[in-house]
Design a protein that fits this description.
Elements: H1 2-10, H2 20-33, H3 45-52, H4 56-68, E1 72-75, E2 79-82, H5 87-111, H6 114-131, H7 137-152, H8 158-178, H9 182-200, H10 204-232, H11 235-238
Antiparallel strand pairs: 1-2
Helix pairs in contact: 1-3, 2-4, 3-4, 5-8, 5-10, 6-7, 6-9, 7-8, 7-9, 8-10, 9-10
């Protein structure tokens, strides 16, 4: 899969030195999360640097950061590859997300300003439009991420926000399998609407209860599609055991 990624990147204009590491990190992270780079895809530092028209140094730093985020691992005989997860590890990730989201965003709802509320409302309105029309699932998944990330943004504990954002990374990959059908998106929008109502009311207890329910429902949807694809021998999940 790395070969396809390298070919795609070869047509891109060279990145400037400004915020180079962050740009490369975002590029690789998004391609992993969006499954352009599938689990077990090799990530060769030299090849990526050549495709992007940059030196190996920033690419090396980015790959180390991706390792720290759990999206890339080193394997004997292979070098760095896109991380794969067992089904139980993915279920565990959902539980970590549930814990991080409920506590971080629960704190945030107590300190959020009217401006914060308006930002979430704007995202929710765009999600509503996508939930009632022909589906652009990738666009909806991106709004889904922005919704959750924006809920956490007003949290006064910045360490918690960093923990929360790292917990959300593997979940964003899972959303490729849990948000596929019209009923999924419609149900998802309804859940997000209810979450925001409790958040805006600063009802932390109700919000945390709804978040736990929301995360658990997302985990069930993911596992259902994951098992269906595993049984069908789908390439996008066959590297996961």
């Amino acid at each position: 899969m790395e070969e396809n990624f390298v070919k795609m990147m070869a047509g891109q204009p060279p990145l400037t030195a400004d915020l180079l590491v962050q740009k490369i990190y975002t590029l690789l992270e998004e391609n992993i999360i969006n499954m352009v780079l599938l689990p077990e895809s090799k990530l060769v530092e030299e090849n990526i640097a050549r495709a992007l028209g940059v030196s190996r140094s920033p690419v090396r730093e980015v790959l180390i950061q991706l390792e720290n985020a759990g999206l890339v691992v080193r394997k004997t005989g292979k070098g760095r590859v896109v991380a794969s997860f067992t089904e139980q590890e993915l279920i565990d990730n959902y539980q970590v997300w549930e814990m991080a989201e409920s506590y971080t965003c629960g704190l945030a709802c107590l300190t959020a300003t009217e401006r914060d509320f308006l930002k979430v409302e704007a995202i929710l309105e765009r999600m509503k439009k996508l939930s009632g029309a022909e589906k652009d699932f990738r666009a909806y998944r991106e709004l889904n991420y922005r919704f959750h990330s924006q809920l956490a943004a007003p949290c006064p504990n910045k360490t918690l926000i960093r923990i929360y954002e790292n917990a959300l990374k593997p979940i964003r990959w899972c959303w490729n399998l849990s948000l596929l059908w019209r009923r999924d998106v419609t149900r998802s929008y309804d859940e997000h609407r209810d979450l925001f109502a409790a958040y805006r009311a600063r009802n932390r207890k109700a919000f945390e209860r709804l978040v736990r329910k929301h995360c658990q429902a997302a985990s069930v949807r993911f596992r259902k599609e994951y098992r269906r694809r595993m049984n069908a021998g789908d390439e996008s999940v066959k590297a996961l055991k």
